[in-house]
From TrEMBL:
Residues 401-416 have a biased composition (Polar residues). GO terms for molecular function: ATP binding; G protein-coupled receptor binding; G protein-coupled receptor kinase activity. PROSITE patterns: AGC_KINASE_CTER (PS51285), PROTEIN_KINASE_ATP (PS00107), PROTEIN_KINASE_DOM (PS50011), PROTEIN_KINASE_ST (PS00108). SMART domains: S_TKc. Residues 418-439 have a biased composition (Basic and acidic residues). Residues 285-365 form the AGC-kinase C-terminal domain. Signal peptide: none annotated. PANTHER family: G PROTEIN-COUPLED RECEPTOR KINASE/RIBOSOMAL PROTEIN S6 KINASE, SERINE_THREONINE-PROTEIN KINASE 32B ISOFORM X1. One of its GO terms (biological process) is G protein-coupled receptor signaling pathway. Pfam families: Pkinase. Residues 22-284 form the Protein kinase domain. This is Uncharacterized protein. Residues 374-439 are annotated as: Disordered.
Length: 439
């Protein structure tokens, strides 16, 4: 009598979301303690990006608070120009973020390939990113790490902010003082260590715009000390051929974003007036702000869908070098009291999320920057989710078929040396200027 074939267990889509709900496709990114791969929901057949983070490595690198903070912040956010979280869950080994899939690559990838982008393209992206930043600031969230690496394009060429690993809530009553982010994109008020708020994101946006147009950053230095001095003291200068690449209105906008005085910086007026200033600026005269968020406007740059807009070596590493490949596993029954404090924190605070079943909610102000192993408190002011239908693929697409994708940054987040940890325990060490593209 022949052997009985092992049949897969049916997937319970009515229960909490877990890895059994997804088909694992190709690996497209690698981080300090996790990876990113394309997945397909087995029921709805939508495509997503799955960012998974190894718990043990997370504890070893003292990044538990960052992961929980990122999970909570992403639950609050749903915007057309943000890489939104659709699901969150964990198993015994990993924490999982299921995010909007961006097939167009990040702006660092395109900048390195093309050298620079046209003014029309950059203006369009700055408009979309300004809309996203205004939304975040309205929700009292500062990103703190805006740079080309963390701006992803969808298949139609629209820009989206990703990587909220060091993002934080801010309060008008207390300034942040921790030195956090990628140094070349840090605002002067961060490096001065006299306190800062949401205004730093508009400076970073200006650095990105300058770099995308001219193929170089406005402030540079061979060492961290030299770069700090340049950001704090050097006059803003443009290349000799600047006017051949950027209009005078564009140069004025760059000067506005890169104003050292936050009170005079473009985008920084309170109560939404800063975003209104951007909308009225002559450089953005060609932007139809009424239809921008609906993505009705065509992007002036559309990534080549026939090419992989990511580092294809991640898939090869997964096939040849991974000694513990990702697979869905049933959770083991365990006593949470036997876990370490850090593991217990992740178990209790990295809660499941399903955008089709749950409303988005805000943890502010009951979610100060996490530094201790305290169970999450309930929140108020829930907002309904505004889900966007992700991409779907035909039924005959196999897991090994070619898909374009890209890395969704995941960086280690050790404490910043010299930072005021009491006022900003979520701060991280500045990235070395010679190793800025840290995934």
């Amino acid at each position: 009598m022949g052997a009985v074939c092992c049949r897969p267990q049916p997937v319970d889509f009515d229960g909490d979301v877990n890895l059994f709900h997804f088909v694992l496709l190709r690996c497209v990114g690698k981080g300090a303690f996790g990876k990113v791969r394309v997945v397909q929901h087995k029921q709805g057949r939508e495509l997503y990006a799955l960012k998974y983070i190894n718990k043990s490595k997370c504890v070893k690198m003292k990044a538990v608070a960052n992961i929980v903070q990122e999970r909570r912040l992403l639950e609050e956010i749903d915007h057309p120009f943000v890489v939104n979280m659709r699901y969150a869950f964990q198993d015994d080994e990993n924490c999982f973020f299921v995010l909007d899939l961006m097939l167009g690559g990040d702006l660092r990838f395109h900048l390195e390939r093309l050298g620079s982008l046209s003014e029309d393209v950059v203006r369009f992206y700055m408009a979309e990113l300004s809309s996203a930043l205004s939304f975040l600031h309205d929700h009292r969230i500062i990103h703190r790490d805006l740079k080309p690496d963390n701006i992803l394009l969808d298949e139609r060429g629209h820009a989206h902010i990703t990587d909220f690993n060091i993002a934080v809530h801010y309060s008008d009553k207390r300034l942040l003082t921790g030195v956090a982010g990628s140094m070349a994109y840090m605002a002067p008020e961060i490096l001065a260590k006299r306190g800062y708020t949401y205004t730093i994101d508009w400076w970073s946006l200006g650095v990105c715009a300058y770099e995308l147009i001219f193929g170089r950053r406005p402030f540079r230095g061979k060492t961290n000390s030299d770069l700090t001095h340049s950001i704090a003291k050097d006059s803003l200068r443009f290349p000799e051929d600047a006017e051949s690449k950027c209009s005078r209105d564009g140069l004025r906008a760059l000067k506005g974003f890169l104003e050292r005085d936050p009170s005079r910086r473009l985008g920084c007026k309170p109560n939404g007036e800063g975003f209104a200033d951007i909308q009225r600026h002559p450089w953005f005269q060609s932007i139809n702000w009424d239809t921008l968020d609906s993505k009705q406007q065509e992007s002036p740059f559309v990534p080549d869908s026939k090419k992989a807009n990511f580092d294809a070596s991640h898939e090869l590493e997964e096939l040849l070098l991974e000694d513990n490949p990702l697979k869905a596993r049933q959770r083991k029954v365990q006593d949470i009291n036997n876990l370490s404090a850090e593991m217990r924190q992740m178990e209790e605070q990295f809660t499941s999320y399903d955008f089709k079943k749950m409303q988005r909610r805000s943890y502010y102000p009951s979610n100060p920057q996490l530094a201790s192993m305290v169970t999450a408190t309930s929140s108020t002011g829930a907002d309904p989710s505004r889900p966007v239908t992700p991409m779907t693929i035909p039924n005959d697409l196999a897991p090994n078929d070619s898909l374009n994708g890209n890395g969704y940054s995941q960086k280690p987040s050790p404490s910043s040396e010299g930072a005021d940890h009491d006022s900003d325990p979520h701060a991280v060490r500045m990235h070395d200027i010679n190793n800025e593209k840290a995934y």
